[in-house]
Design goal:
The protein has two helices and five strands; from the N terminus they run αβαββββ. The longest helix is centred in the middle third of the chain and has 13 residues. The radius of gyration is 16 Å and the shape is globular. The protein is 20% helix and 26% strand. The termini are far apart. The protein is α+β, with helices and mostly antiparallel strands and 92 residues long. Strands 3-4-5 form a three-stranded antiparallel beta sheet, with no helix packed on it.
Length: 92
């Protein structure tokens, strides 16, 4: 869609780094597996067991025992960071 409508010469490379050994850890395991397969079928690189150590000068340093070499790095043009949430307790 980007090249056709916005003149982007080539589609962006999208990667998801997930610290745990699966995506959507709070979901039913079957649904999480289906979600992983769908992302990968759409060309999104999903790297499990990989966390972010730092991000400087458009280089992302990784850590973990996943499918990116431990202590590895990757060039990044745009970084979108999301973090898990847990409900607050004791507020009521």
């Amino acid at each position: 869609m980007l090249p056709r409508y916005y003149g982007v010469p080539e589609p962006p490379v999208v990667s998801v780094l997930q610290r745990s050994d699966r995506i959507l850890p709070g979901w039913d395991p079957g649904l999480a597996t289906e979600g992983l397969e769908l992302l990968r079928a759409r060309g999104i690189g999903v790297h499990l067991g990989v966390g972010v150590k730092s991000f400087r000068n458009n280089v992302l340093e990784t850590e973990g025992n996943g499918d990116i070499t431990e202590g590895g790095s990757m060039p990044v043009g745009t970084l979108i960071w999301t973090a898990g949430t847990t409900p607050a307790t004791g507020l009521l």
